[in-house]
Amino acid sequence: MHEPYARKLELAGEHEKCGMETCMRNRMDTENYLPKHIGPACGCEWHKPPLEDVVSLLSNGQIPVLLYHPPHDRLSSDKSSGTPYVAISHVWADGLGSTTEKGLPACQIKRLTTLTCQLVTNGAFWIDALCIPETREMRKKAIGLMARTYRDATAVLVIVSGIRSIPCSAPREEKLLRIMSSGWMQRLWTLQEGILARKLIFEFSDGLLSLEDLLPVNEEHFNVLLLSLASEIFRLKKHRDSLLNVSDVARSLRWRSTSKPEDETLAISGLLNINASELIDYPPEQRIQMFLIRIQRLPRGIIFLSGLKMEVPGFRWAPRTLMRRASSSLGFGDSQALCTSTGPHFRVYGLVF
Fold first, then answer.
1. Phi and psi angles of residue 146, each rounded to the nearest 5 degrees, phi first
2. Mean pLDDT by 10 residues, the chain (353 residues)
3. For the chain, how big is the Rg over CA atoms in Å?
4. If residue 111 lies in a helix (H) or strand (E), which one and from where to where?
5. CA distance to 270, 274, 275, 351, per residue, from 278 (Å)
6. What are the b/e assignments for 209-243, b being 16+ CB within 10 Å?
7. Residues 248/232, Cβ–Cβ less than 8 Å
């Protein structure tokens, strides 16, 4: 029997900590995390951009983008305005996580440059691991620019080991299944990165394919399995071309997770035209309240959502998180409640006997 690509390269025991509703494979131990080299035998040195340049750009409200200079084996940074660049979307579990101060192995930087040169001639790229310093003030500024970073990029390149393990020539069903079951579709921050992209590109083992290349064509629209697999991918494209509301975002978050629950509102604020930097200074437990106040228009049904609620007076109806596994959901197109600092205000109708 033909073995599905989605089962290849699965390591024994990598899902042993997972539950019925939550996959723990991509949850990171941030205290002991280390970036990975391309191969276990590689021992190349690490590179990083000049910290003072990245800090200067962020302090002036500029997005820092990076250029690799092979003759000198070094990284430089420049402002994104006027510089075509590729924004890298990845999951830390694959070994590309870091900060500006720490940097990444040279082998990874060279590989990133090789990929991005296929999309922009100068090979300029942005990746959180090198463009977000670890200091709180600089991280705050970078997060405030995050939505713009992905929205302004020439392309957003998805680099995930699970997707990269199959070729471009694999059947469309297999490619979609690999994307749907990947850590990229399960993580919180990548939702914004995928939706805001002008052009969303996926790396496979032997090349790059755009989101449009993966969608069913012609008679494939009669293939029920293919359409089902493509539905979530298509939703990224649909949301990119339309104005989102909190119901859209809540539906897309249903099966996503994060190692840092306090980042939830920061990661989705850009999808609703809210500046994440306005929320980051609030205590984590207060961010969802301020997030809902800034949205203003909410579905009336939000007060009936199951799950844990806030304990703040006037907001005891509010969910603590939108990353929910419960079956109850928000109605679409229903934004008739006005959320203020004192709570929700809306009109309901009833019959009096």
1. -60, -50
2. 46 58 61 88 94 97 96 91 96 94 96 97 96 95 95 97 94 93 92 94 97 89 85 76 81 86 94 91 92 91 87 93 70 72 82 74
3. 21
4. helix 106-116
5. 11, 8, 6, 43
6. eebeebbbeeeeeeeeebeebbeebeebbebbeee
7. no
Reduced to 3 states (helix: H, G, I; strand: E, B; else coil), residue 6 is: helix
For residue 55, give the amino acid letter: V
Contact call for residues 332 and 344 (beta carbons, < 8 A): no
C-alpha–C-alpha distance, residues 291 and 28, integer Å: 26
**How confident is the model at residue 30, as a pLDDT?**
65
Residue with tokens 């959320």: 339
- 42: nearest Cα among 88, 104, 89: 104
CA-to-CA dists, residue 305 to 152, 317, 318, angstroms: 35, 8, 8
CA pseudo-torsion sign 227, 27, 145, 297: positive
Give the dihedral sign, CA 117/121/124/125: negative
Count Cβ atoms below 10 Å from residue 256 Cβ, excluding itself. 18
The alpha carbon of 223 is separated from its chain's Cα centroid by a whole number of angstroms, namely 29
- Separation CA 196–CA 271 (nearest Å): 8
- Measured CA to CA, the distance from residue 83 to residue 78 in angstroms comes to 8
Residues 155 and 198: beta-carbon distance below 8 Å: yes
Strands 200-204 and 207-210: antiparallel
CB 326 within 8 A of CB 305: yes
DSSP class of 145: T
Burial class (CB in 10 A: 0-12, 13-18, 19+), 122: middle
